[in-house]
Amino acid sequence: MSTTERHIPDRLTTPAQRVLKSWEALLLAVAIAIFIVNSLASPYFLNAWNLSDATFNFTEKAMIAFAMALLIIAGEIDLSVASIIALASTAMGAAAQVGAGPATLVLIGLGVGLACGAFNAVLVTVMGLPSIVVTIGTMSLFRGISYIVLGDTAYGGYPPGFEYFGQGYVFWVFSFEFVLFAVLAVIYGVLLHKTNFGRAVYAIGNNATGAMFSGIRVQRVKFILFLLTGLMSGIAAVCLTSRLGSTRPSIGLGMELEVVTMVVLGGVNILGGSGSIPGVVIAAFVMGLVTFGLGLLNVPGIVMSIFIGLLLIGVIALPRLWSMARGK
Amino acid sequence: MKRRTFGTLTAGLTLAACLMGTSAMAQEKTRIALVVKALGIGFFEAANKGAEEAAKELGDVEIIYTGPTDTTAEGQIEVINALIAQQVNAIAISANDRDALVPALKKAMDRGITVISWDSGVAPEGRQMHLNPSSNPLIGNMIIKLAADHLPDGGDVAVLSASATATNQNTWIEEMNKVLPNYPGINVVGTVYGDDLADKSYRETQGLMQTYPNLKAIIAPTSVGIVAAAQAVTDAGKIGQINVTGLGLPSEMAAAVESGASQSFAIWNPIDLGYSATMIAYNLVKGNAKAEAGGKIGMGRMGEVTLDDNNEGAMADPFVYDKSNIEEFKSIF
Description:
The complex is a heterodimer.
Chain A: H1 15-21, H2 23-41, H3 48-55, H4 59-73, H5 81-97, H6 102-126, H7 131-150, H8 164-167, E1 169-171, E2 174-175, H9 176-194, H10 196-206, H11 208-213, H12 218-244, H13 255-265, H14 277-296, H15 301-327
Antiparallel strand pairs in A: 1-2
Chain B: H1 2-21, E1 30-35, H2 42-58, E2 61-66, H3 73-85, E3 90-93, H4 102-110, E4 114-118, E5 129-132, H5 136-149, E6 155-161, H6 167-179, E7 186-193, H7 198-211, E8 215-220, H8 223-235, E9 243-246, H9 250-259, E10 264-267, H10 270-285, E11 296-298, E12 304-306, E13 312-314, E14 319-322, H11 326-330
Parallel strand pairs in B: 1-2, 1-3, 3-4, 4-5, 5-13, 6-7, 6-8, 8-9
Antiparallel strand pairs in B: 10-14, 11-12
């Protein structure tokens, strides 16, 4: 900086420009591009029922991704979410064996999710342990319990009515899961972008010490975020178990990475401090459309993973390359 | 800046279009999807080889070989949804979960898709028929036949099983005992249990050799037991005196067959399984046969399968592996 006198504008861009240049706009463009390519590549893509089936590829993951987005924005992470699903589903299966009804099963699923979330929360916020280490541990712990209970066997025999959560339709092609996903998107959008709690989450992610000195109860906010992630995993467990009608200890294996991928693709800074719910919503659609589109072309799953990986790196590297190019 | 974004997007689009443009649709062909537990498993790659063989023989068939990356039910459901969407003619699946796939497969059948399971079955309401690689009576007969074939003058044989409570092994041994009178001169002197643990199976085999000095063959209808027994016979220097046979995997048994510790053993042939599943799916799609109790469905060179009350059928005798074909199969599974 050699100049001693500079003109400082009120803002660098107009609001319209800001929207156009935002991450969400870029993602939306990618989503539309994928949609068009898919429609051209397969004659089966543009069909309401097929697209409805495709939403199941992402709804459960996206529900968890909303809570995970808040957690990552606050500078923490929860890698145990898929294992919470396994444990919650196992608990529901065990209850179904002794004749629990659909309402009881849902309560058990959400309860186990909350309990697992609370366990993570205590270890991180009360004991002060790093969340990545804690949740790698509980990832093995929660699923391990399922393996001990179930071993090589499976729970089935869920009561009639329970299948609605994963297989029911609210109206026309809109499944219960999709409607729930949409409602949760709005709730989390409001929570993060329109409430004091949401501001506190950003503040903690940007500067936890600063947030503390401004009167934000940092540990308490984090505690609630872990509870929310556990609860959302419980909800996802109810949906997934209902959809499958059976519980195996391997249920939802590897889902945590897809959830984190979705969050990061949605523009949430993995180091915390920034990100938005609309971004995560679009990212959910992008991932769902890509996997479904590739599935229609019978691209093997492993190639699909490569594609998602490239997409993630591509979308993340793009703005960086952009600013590097501009910096020259 | 905007131009740059546009450029990147166009590049992305073109790339995607190139990737996706490669699969041309062949509508007039019967499209049969072979869905496996997970991709990248030798056993299923071999089944695909069999399916391709059937497709070539039939001429107007396109095989879609697919499956999830992990052996999860939800992964297979995503695959099934994609197959329903493309309106394939048939789905032949080896299931990761007997019950979890039922809703998705029911939906497939509702939309006119022929659904069969093979290898690892689906509950009856989720498929039209299930193809077992073999049946308990066929396996029971095969394991004693394998021993008897190399004992023209008869002799003492013993059984090394898995655990005393293992349903599979107990059923097979029971079936073996039923057909024992057909093999005169063969004397089953005892059954020991290795619990499917390599070290326990090894010790039990040593015990057998000491207890029965005239032992001519050991039948191990378990893939863990047969390897341990072959090792114990080799270590005792009794290759040529005692023949180890039963059910095993070619990859694990190759060394024993080459050394002579095992003359031959059996297990299902994945190539035949993929071939037969494809033939059955084709015949059901074309209306050449019906999937109903007591019905018969053609399987090309494998003959035909007869369905029982659960709409299940057995393909064939377990396939015998010996010096003549072990080289070919040991790299498959």
